[in-house]
Amino acid sequence: MEFTENCKPLSVFKFFEALSSVPHGSGNTKAISDICVEFAKWRGLLCYRDDHNNVVIYKEGSACRENEEPVIIQGHLDMVCAKHPDDPMDMSVEPIQLVIDGDYLRAEKTSLGGDDTIAVAMALAILDSKTLSHPPIEAVFTTDEETGMFGAAGLDVSVLRGRRMLNIDSEEEGVFTVGCSGGLRANCEIPAAREKYGDGLVSYDVTVSGLLGGHSGCDIDKERGSSNKLISRFLFKASKLMPLRLIELQGGEFDNVIPSKTVATVAVSGIDADKFERLAKEYDGIYKHELSSSDPGVRLEACVSGVKAETVTVKDTEKLLKTLYIMPQGIQNMSMDIKGLVQTSLNMGILRLEHDCLKYSFAVRSSVLSQKKELYDRICTITEDAGGKTTSHGEYPGWEIKKDSPLRDAALAAYRDVYGGEAVITATHGGLECGLFADKIPGLDCISYGPELHDIHSVNERLGIASVQRVYDLTCRILQLLH
Ligand SMILES: [Zn+2]
Q1: Distance, CA 106 to ligand 1 centroid (Å)?
Q2: Is the distance from CB of 341 to CB of 180 less than 8 angstroms?
Q3: Cα 97 to Cα 13, 22, 81, distances in angstroms
């Protein structure tokens, strides 16, 4: 493919093409890191690569700026390999095919990996330039960001002198991200005793479905219903009105996805059957009313099912449902610094009744470490009260918004120069590598931004060609203004 004269700066697009010529999905980053190491070698630039295939390339400051503090320019080497399910292409060995499509660059039938190849391409163009004015540069290319930020987590930051960092891994032009949430996963387990299925019982399959779900970082502010919580609330209410026995309960697959469908099987005495069915209809109406704006398709259905072998005892059913009922869910705190930003939240993404225990998992997020800990403690306490236990996994640090940030001030001034307007300052409830770097490098001053990217992690991913020139100019202007 030939880049047209509209693809500027050509240096950035040429590096983008070179980087895209090798497959580089998460976990498959040796070849793309080789390209970066070769690049440094050919230009006589000092280079460091570690066991994770993280690459750091050092460049001295331009004339008269050699003694300034270095600036880190950072992005990740790995991409999400998305393709159509019936496409036979093997993205672990076949490179993507770039296509210019009007104002956009995309890939033929696959994701583009503009997230985050464009950051690496821009950094290489800056390292390659002989005319830019800049402080010493430490270009840091990490790996396996998309699967858990493992490269950034494993990087030995003692190889870096920089205390200010430009992370080029955001997708909305004109927006500077200056904070993100930290998080962890909480896995809980409560024992449950079973007994023989009694005489005179009627069993029901109960389903809560029709919800929109979504990502527990980006969509938690939309107040969408959680099918795990809605079914728990209905069943808990039923258990207060009649002896109820759980048989099956299952909803959600990932802790970081808001569950959109949960299915339960329960048994009640024959004499309570009518009451149970009426209650199900009543709660179907309640949920349709409460969620009419966020999830207009929600429904709760209860259908008579067949005879079963066993049930959880009435006593343990009550205990489990009470625990699920009182568990918090969704937004816990909003930021008082940035309007509309969720500060602390949790999502019960997975709910599963096994033979002798109930298991449920949460994604807990907060940009304030103490609130993340407090919320985890609350989950532990509620679970412990029911005789259960909780463990945490995959903890990652947040990135707290700095009140004073010379880098942010320089970026805002550079934005005015390049765009002639004001950039938006924001933070995200999702996770960014900036959090890991801020945690490991005390006092790190950092912002995240990037060119226009749409539908990342999907076959529709596309990069706004014209935005690349503007964001490149912005980056060069920031480097010029920093001292
Ligand atoms: Zn990314």
Answers
A1: 16
A2: no
A3: 14, 10, 13
User: Which sequence spans correspond to the domains of the chain?
Assistant: 10-181+399-481, 183-396
Average pLDDT, whole number, for the chain? Answer: 95
Q: Which residues surround ligand 1, an ion (CB under 5 A)?
A: 115-116, 169
pLDDT reading at 253 higher than 90 = no
Interval 65-111: pLDDT, tens: 999 999 999 999 999 998 887 889 999 999 999 999 999 999 999 99
CA of 236 to the centre of ligand 1 (A): 41
pLDDT at 223: 93
Q: Which residue has the tokens 């298991």?
A: 359
What top-level class would CATH report for the domain 183-396? alpha beta
Inter-residue contact 76 to 141 (CB < 8 Å): yes
> Tell me, what's the pLDDT at 306?
93
Burial of 295 (0-12, 13-18, 19+ CB in 10 A): buried
Distance CA(284)–CA(453), nearest Å, equals 40
The CA distance from 313 to 317, in Å, is 6
Question: Within 10 A of 109 (CB to CB), how many other CB atoms are there?
Answer: 14
Q: Is the pLDDT of residue 219 over 90?
A: no
Instruction: Tell me yes or no: is domain 10-181+399-481 CATH 3.40.640.10.
Output: no
Neighbours of 37 (CB within 10 A): 15
- The pLDDT of 148-166, averaged and rounded, is 96
**Spatial CA neighbour of 396 closest among 371, 376, 366:** 366
Distance 116 CA to ligand 1 centre (A): 5
Neighbours of 88 (CB within 10 A): 7
What is the mean pLDDT of the segment spanning 33-40?
Answer: 98
